[in-house]
Here is the input.
Amino acid sequence: MAKRTTAELWEKQDLGVGDRRGLYDAVAATIGARRVLYPGSYVDIAPSFHFPAVTYVDVDKRAKAFFADVDGVAAIVADNDGPPDASVTFLHADYTDPLDLDAEAFDLLVSLYAGFVSEHCAHHLRIGGTLLVNSSHGDAAMASIDRRLELTGVVISRDETYSVDTGGLERFMIPKRDQAITVESLHASGRGVAYTTSPFAYLFTRRR
Here is the structure.
């Protein structure tokens, strides 16, 4: 059973009850990853409802306390029908600093509302692995100019359900205004690029 503070943190994280579960369910059905890296995760434990081994990274002390309740986190995973042998690892660290993790060790890298995760952590993604990223803070745009990465799908959200679309990708990532998208410009703005068509998130495959 989770400690009261653990349960409360998860309840606040999961305000749209089951929302993140639906997201990862759609992604898991598409890519079948086993090893997941989630920098800037805070207490979003939902990937562990689907994937066997997830490494979470966050500098927040509340996240550290949350994941320190090992039995409580395991109970939340079990209550949500997670894998019976789910492996949950937490690093209390700033992902912009070098992490004590092997390069090319993960099948899926998650970047949601946490800054330029792809810039700092894509080297931990194996060749053929997938980056799940949204436009928050500009990381989807950052991924779009990373020569290692290729857009291979988008996550669509309709009526509180998620699906992955891998066709017609040429209609995505077209800026609404003519602008040069560079590492420097993204760092300077610190926010996402406005695109003509905006899905909930994007899937990029690491090609090299």
